[in-house]
Structure formats: C-alpha cells, structure tokens
Amino acid sequence: MSIGEGFPGERLRILPPAVARAAGASPITRELLVTDAGWFPHALHHGRQRLLGAGASVVIVCTAGRGWCRATQDDSATTLHVRAGQALVLPAQLGHRYGSMADDPWTIIWMHAAGPQARAFEASLPDGGRRPVVIDLHDRARIQQLMEEVLTTMEVDDTLPSLMRTSGAAGNVLAHLAADAAAGPPMRQAPLRRVFAHLRDHLDHPVVVSELAELAGLSPSHFAALFRAATGGGVVAYVTRLRIARASELLATTTLPVAEVGRIVGYEDPLYFSRRFRAVQGISPRLFREAHAHDPPEQIPRDAWPSGHAAG
C-alpha cells in the first residue's frame, strides 16, 4: 500500500483555490505560481498515481534514497529510476505514477508550479514535455537551497508578497533545471572543465582541436562530439563568442585602439577582427564603441545631496 503524505517530520503547504485565483491578477504570480510544496523525509511507502496528471508541473528533488516513476498513458513506457542528486519533472496533464523504493526510501523536496513560465520550462526539456524527465543536478546544494526557499516562504503566509518571493525562487529552480538538462550529466562535463578554463584564460592563443582534446584526455573525435553536445556548436564558434565578448568589454570600458583590442583577443589582422566582430555583434568595433562607451561620470553638485548625505 502506498501513501501520499503523512510522514514523520514532513512539511506541506497547499494554496487555497481562492488564493491561487487571486494571484492570477498579479503580473509576477500570473506568469509562475507555486500552488503546492513539501518536504517528505525518509518517505517509506510514499506513492502517487494521477491518471490524468496534475494541473501544474511537478518538480521533485531527491536529496537521499531512491524512487521511481512511470507515465500511465503509454503501456510500453520505461520505468524511470530517481536517486539522490537528481530531479524528477512531471509535465502538467501527463498521467503518471511514482513512488519511493521500499529498500531505500527517498527524501524529497517538491513543488507544483503553474503558469506560462512553467509551460515554457516543460517545452525546453527533452521531448518538449511529453514524458517524465529525470535530470542530473550540477549543483545539488544550490537547487536544494532554492527549493527550501520556496517552501520556507510559503510557510510564512500566503500573502501576495510571499507568493511573489516564492515565484522568484521557483523560477530560479526551473532555470537551473533547464540548464542542467541541456548540459547533460555532470560527469559528461568533467573532461571539458579544464578546456573551458584554458580557453577563457588564453583567448589570444591559436585554437588547435587536437591539443584541446589532449588536455581533456579524449580522442579528437570524442572530444569534438562531447564539446558540441555541451555547447551546441564547434570549438571555433565557441571561442569566437568568448573573444568577441571580451573585445566588447574592452571597447566599452577602455580607450585601447581597436587593433590592439583585436590582438588581445587573438586577432592579429584588424580587418579580420572587424569582420568577426560584425558577424557576432551586427556592427563594427568602432560603431560598437561609439554606442556603448561611457562618458566620464559627472560629479553630483554638493547642494544636490540630501541633508546629511553629502559626499566627503
């Protein structure tokens, strides 16, 4: 027999329907509203079945133990296994059942999130929200902190300011989960971390894929495939974005000649630098500087300061 709630030490908050409806009048909570949230420690025999799904996106973060999930609309659906350091996402209106493993009951912190931001989050996931998804967390402590913020704020009260704060934390959770899902398992990223740091620190160095692959401890073909999966493009495209981002900063914050800026970020030929810059930013380096360089700050007249706050 499975139970939905009632675990020793559990915490649970559910918004009254009238409060949830009233929150729809606020621009912030209309976009994203947490309607339910909870913390279930060592949830032995925990289980839920919703044949028609929930009315909101269900996010379950597993902090200890293990659990499982399966979509109910598809008899051939694979059973997903969830362990500590992973999040389970159940799209709204998708029939599902899930539960805690009897031999290693999970501890979970969870929320139901509704609104356009939640739907956009679902659409960003694999299969566009048509099936449950298990996501490996890249920063477990940060996600748990944000989920705790969601629940703690709901425990204060259900006034609009509290609901707004809850929406802010929940939006941060969804953004982290979407990014983690796009990046793939953290272990897949591990060989690339040294490469990313090397590229950031050596923008003026030539890009040699075979050398980067050696730095990552991978074959060139495996490295190229892993890099593309992690960044959405090839090494040259990634380095170009890094270089132009740094060049943009230098153009906006220094008076260095444009050619010198180009050399600093790895472009010895000023004309080639200008072409690459225009391809990314849409305008030449000179026009970018004119549009974004800051004028020297003006001093506020002493008599314009409020009494007792004049600058020393």
Structural commentary:
The protein is α+β, with helices and mostly antiparallel strands. It has two domains: 11-183, Jelly Rolls, CATH 2.60.120.280; 187-292, Orthogonal Bundle (Arc Repressor Mutant, subunit A). The chain is 46% helix and 18% strand. It contains twelve helices and ten strands. It has helices at 17-23, 27-31, 116-124, 140-156, 160-183, 186-201, 209-216, 220-231, 235-253, 258-264, 270-281, 285-292; strands spanning 11-14, 33-40, 47-50, 57-64, 66-71, 80-83, 86-90, 96-100, 107-114, 133-136. Strands 1-2-9-4-7-10 form a six-stranded antiparallel beta sheet. Strands 3-8-5-6 form a four-stranded antiparallel beta sheet, with no helix packed on it. β5 (66-71) and β6 (80-83) form a beta hairpin. α3 packs parallel to α5 (160-183), α7 crosses α8 and α9 (235-253) crosses α12 (285-292). The radius of gyration is 25 Å and the shape is globular. The model has no long low-confidence stretch (mean pLDDT 90). Pfam families: AraC_binding (PF02311), HTH_18 (PF12833). It comes from Brachybacterium phenoliresistens. Residues 291-301 have a biased composition (Basic and acidic residues). Residues 193-291 form the HTH araC/xylS-type domain. InterPro entries: AraC-bd (IPR003313), AraC_XylS_family_regulators (IPR050204), Homeodomain-like_sf (IPR009057), HTH-like (IPR037923), HTH_AraC (IPR018060), HTH_AraC-typ_CS (IPR018062), RmlC-like_jellyroll (IPR014710).
